[in-house]
Amino acid sequence: MKPTRFETAIALIDKKNAEDVNTYSVSGMEYPKELLYSQRMSRTLLQFDPNASKALQIAARAQHICRWKIARNEYPMDRVGYLKWRQDLKQMHAELTGDILKEVGYDNEFIDRVKAIVLKKLIKKNKESQTIEDVICLVFLDFYFDEFAAKHSDEKIIDILQKTWKKMSDEGHAAALKIQFSEKSLALVKQAIS
């Protein structure tokens, strides 16, 4: 049976992310970092919103497409440099995703919708943009938080958690509080949101 446009789009996003030279180790197995991240995004999205639209599912899978191609150290190592890097990344993710969707035959309206979600336009006003933001935060908290927290001071982590919490919806908060945190991480989360 011929794969659907949706299946082909997901496969092409995965193919691009499989080229990531950076790897991430899970249970002794090495995975291309952004391929693993994109699969975690898809899984978390469907747990959080089982009825997520195809547009939202594609945006989740493509959230970090080819992220390694724009290195953080190509920008000034300050807040302005960081924000410019993040903006350029989002733009690249949206463009690459748009190209893939065009290639598999989606119309411009659908492509623009997916790109708007990837760019996280109108968070708090657009349900799909808010959902992608919640899922990004949930993936960070579930899979990357412990490792990240170990590298930074408690003060910095609490500040980041408070900023993360502000971006999330009430549903996102409820889902975050169900994550199985380590004892130390849970203490930091509780401190941040109290």
Describe, in plain words, how this protein is organized in 3D:
With 194 residues, this protein is mainly alpha-helical. Helices cover 66% and strands 4% of the residues. The protein has 9 helices and 2 strands, in the order αββαααααααα. The protein has helices spanning 5-17, 33-48, 54-61, 79-103, 108-118, 127-150, 154-167, 170-176, 183-193; strands at residues 23-26, 29-32. It has a two-stranded antiparallel sheet. A hairpin with a 2-residue loop joins strand 1 and strand 2. The protein starts with a helix and ends with a helix. This is DUF4202 domain-containing protein.
CA gyration radius, whole angstroms:
17 Å
Order of SSEs, N→C? HEEHHHHHHHH
Average pLDDT across residues? 93
How many helical stretches? 9
Helix content: 55-70%
Biggest sheet descriptor: 2 strands, antiparallel
Shape: globular
Question: What's the count of strands?
Answer: 2
Low-confidence blocks of residues: none
Strand content: under 5%
Question: Could you say which structural class the secondary elements and strand pairing correspond to?
Answer: mainly alpha
Distance between the termini: 53 Å
Strand order of the largest sheet: 1-2
What would you say about this model in short?
The chain has 194 residues and is mainly alpha-helical. The chain is 66% helix and 4% strand. The model has no long low-confidence stretch (mean pLDDT 93).
